[in-house]
Amino acid sequence: MNACAAFRFRLPPPSVTALLLALAFLAMPGARADVPREYKLKAAFLFNFTKYVQRPSALPADSERTIVIGLLGSDPFEGELQRIARGRRSGSHPVAVRVLTGLEEVGAADLLFVPAAEEGRFAALAAKLRKVPVLTVGESGRFLDDGGVLAFVRDGDRLRFSIALGAVRRSGLQVSAQLLSLATLVPEKGQP
Amino acid sequence: MNAALRDLPIARKLTLIILLASSVGLLAAVATLVGYEYASYRRSLVRELSSVAAMTGFDSSAALTFSDDQAAAKTQEGLAAETQVDAACLYDADGRFFAGYRRDPAGPARWPDAGPAGERFGLAAVELFRPVAIDRESVGTIYLRADLREFWTRLGWDALIAVLALGAAGGISVAVGHRLQTLVSGPIVHLAGVAGRVAAERDYALRASKSGNDELGRLIDGFNEMLAQIQLQDAALQAARDNLEGRVAERTLQLQAEITERERLHRQLLDASRQAGMAEVATGVLHNVGNVLNSVNVSATLVTNQVRRSKAAHLDRLAAMLREKSGHLAEFLTADPKGRRIPEFLDHLAADLGRERTEIADELEQLRKNIEHIKQIVSMQQSYAKVCGVTEAVPASELVEDALRLNAGALARHGVEVVRDYGAPCTVTVERHKVLQILVNLIRNAKYACDESQSSRRELRLRIEAAGLGVRIAVIDNGVGIPAENLTRIFNHGFTTRKAGHGFGLHSGAIVAKELGGFLRAESAGPGLGAVFTLELPLHPTSS
After folding, report:
1. Mutate to test the interface with B, among A1, A182, A185 (most CBs of B within 10 A)
2. 10 Å Cβ neighbour count for B491?
3. Interface pTM (ipTM) of the complex?
4. Which of B228, B388, B413, B529 could make a disulfide contact with B481, Cβ separation 3.0–4.6 Å?
5. What CA–CA distance (Å, rounded) separates B138 from B91?
6. d(Cα B143, Cα A72) in Å, to the nearest integer?
7. pTM to 2 decimals?
8. Distance from C-alpha of A180 to C-alpha of A163, rounded to nearest angstrom
9. How many CB atoms lie within 10 A of CB B177?
10. Which residues from B are below 8 Å from A when comparing CB atoms?
């Protein structure tokens, strides 16, 4: 309980209307026929991940700092994520969505989504991002093997996700116990 | 209720009052306590449930966010530790059911629709809705349903303990009150007892004893004082009553004496009136007899003178002369001149004596008639006097005629014209002499009234007419009349307008008329206008 309260305290207040909007999109599959339902869900999840993952406490706190969600190489959401993030805040932070191509840009993101098509490029990046506090999110099980932190997993018609505990530790990110409790945890290599 | 209370003994009433008052007070206290307990239980229950909801909601917020209903269901299973929570569920931000938990999996499967934050207390359970938020952003709603059995059990125990306390307190207050109420009821009961004894035994010497100087003490003082006064008054009353009995006896004796005296006087009066009436009749009779005796006297004197002056004396002288000449009687008769005249003389004498005899016989006949008249009058008087107290049926006109006859002489002498105005003949059954006594008196009065009048024509009218079941005999004169002021007292004893009158006639007349069951009435238009005296009699005497 205490831990929860402390955790909650750290959470910046999100925008209610934005979340409702997001949920509304979730609730209406096929409302935008051009975006597959799976990507809509993934967009919502990506936005929500920012609420449950904090930067290392050693970094200076700035409640007005913009959280940047980077999309590596291309935007498979076709602007859906931008729409979700527009005008909303994750906690107290405004959220920006950018399509990133260069390495230097990748380092400035808080969350980096690697579409399945870009996973090859990520493998090259991974080593550089090892100790950078960036929540890297991929779409396949292999992504975690490449050093990614979190990967979406399809479980029937549910969308779940796995978290690589080793990657989390290395990145220095603080991942909420709640988020962890929902995820399939992948232990560090060499550990039981 | 009130009526039943009213007749209770005062001690029970006081005990009851104490019991009622303390019960009401305690009940109010118990009700307040139980009410307060209920409210605070409710509040703490809501608080507990709220915190459970907050915790569960928080723990489920990530599951809600990431649509992981399995994780949410797992989180809710933690509610098994919260024994009063029966069921719980989560709704997503759109109010759709997301995940649920039941303590009893066989329980009802329906979930309520998501509601706004709040509590709903039913009899068996309380339902609670709380929003689930990540910070201020709502991600869904949590619903909790808690069984109220424990709530009611706790409240029931509270109430039971309160009622037990109430009973104990009531018992104690009644016990104490019962002892203390004698302070108030004791003197009242004592007073009531004394009052009851006073009422039952009429013993005003009893006194109530006093136990203090409060209002009851003053009441008892007042009661004792009243008793003392009653005792005094009772004694005075008794004395007065004893005295009164003596006075009543005395007065009764006096009254009896007075009544006896009155009866005696009344009898005297009746006798006097009867005698007076008889005297009236007697006067009338004697008057008539006197008148007739006058004629008798005249007749007797005439006869006496006639006899004294009778020519019969000449016969003596003729006889002496004849005795002297007895020797030469023939010579004398033929020669002597005296003798020769004797036959002539005898002729004359015979004629004279014959005339004398006729005159005397006439006079004697007159005398006989007068004596016969006297005899009639006397026998009439005797017939009235004789029938005292006996009633007989008589034609009314006969009574009037008798009365007129008794006054006939006087009426004729004073030139009073008698007018008879008799209606249809009728017969009354009366004591004849009593009626006659009245009528004679009335006719006499009428005659006097006519005498005193200046009127040239003196008229006495006698009218007989039927009047209902009786007869009305009116004696009407055109004499001096009666002034109005006298009309009212004309029947009073001793009232008269005549110098020689004794004021008895009309008075006794009225009395007698009443005795006969009728009445006597006087009317007059005023002085000089005559008067009407009316005697009304029943056809048959009444039993009285």
Report:
1. A182
2. 19
3. 0.72
4. B529
5. 11
6. 42
7. 0.47
8. 7
9. 18
10. 55, 58-59, 61-63, 65-68, 71, 92-94, 96, 134-139
